[in-house]
Amino acid sequence: MQSLKRRYTDLAPRENHDRTAVSRIKSDAEIGRRETDNSLAKRFTKTDSPQLTTDEEMEFDRNDLIISRTDIRGTITYCNNIFTKMSGWTQEELLGSNHNLIRHPDMPKVAYQLVWDNIKANNEFYGYVKNLRKDGGYYWVFAYITADLNDEGEIAGYTSYRRYAPKLAIDTMKPIYKLLIEAEKEGGIEASIKLLGGFLNKTGFSSYDQFIVDLQIKANATLQ
Ligand SMILES: Cc1cc2nc3c(=O)[nH]c(=O)nc-3n(C[C@H](O)[C@H](O)[C@H](O)COP(=O)(O)O)c2cc1C
User: Fold this and answer.
1) Model confidence pLDDT, tens digit, residues 157-186
2) Which residue from 169, 168, 175, 196 is spatially nearest to 109, judged by alpha carbons?
3) 169: Cβ below 6 Å to ligand 1?
4) Is 100 a pocket residue for ligand 1 (Cβ < 6 Å)?
5) Would you say the pTM of this structure is higher than 0.85?
6) Which residues contact 194 (CB under 8 A, 6 or more apart)?
7) Cα gap 91→85, rounded to integer Å
């Protein structure tokens, strides 16, 4: 079992990742605007995303890194050009929009409950996410989300980094997400929370975080 003390860069694919990328780009990202006032012209949410999804997967390059930052409500205040490339939305469209614009219907609600429970408590979140592209296609990522604190130590917003998700991890998550969505259809989010808790118990993981980190390490080890 891995120690909880690790950095996101430690969980990147082994061969070709740049260990300084996150810290370097994080400081570049400081230029991203945090305010979400009227100066941000476009405000899209998931109701503006394509209603028809397709089976077209956009492959995530192993060297790519998506970055976005949000205010405390999840409104996008910064995005890099890999995000625009992968999502199909322009930077102008993304800035000021809710991050749920790229929410894919194959993702269970409980995944986002875990995101927000963790980041609002200033804990880091790790997880695999299937995201919806503007053209109805999708892409998988291994995501890390963390709170950004202001000088007073209060949460001022959030930053997310996404990397390539290895096939083993995606193949592991697909049936789990499917079961969680089925549980949500039957018994709401309480049912999927219960199902996930039971699964973690049975597989011997003390938390979802432990399960994900363990999976990412195993999945990275399969990469050529
Ligand atoms: C920094 C940050 C990054 C996020 N990235 C994504 C993302 O890539 N895809 C996604 O569907 N939701 C993402 N979310 C979560 C969304 O804000 C939202 O909770 C989720 O899409 C579910 O939306 P819904 O509850 O309105 O259905 C992110 C949130 C934050 C704070």
Assistant:
1) 899 999 999 999 999 999 999 999 999 999
2) 196
3) no
4) yes
5) yes
6) 183
7) 10
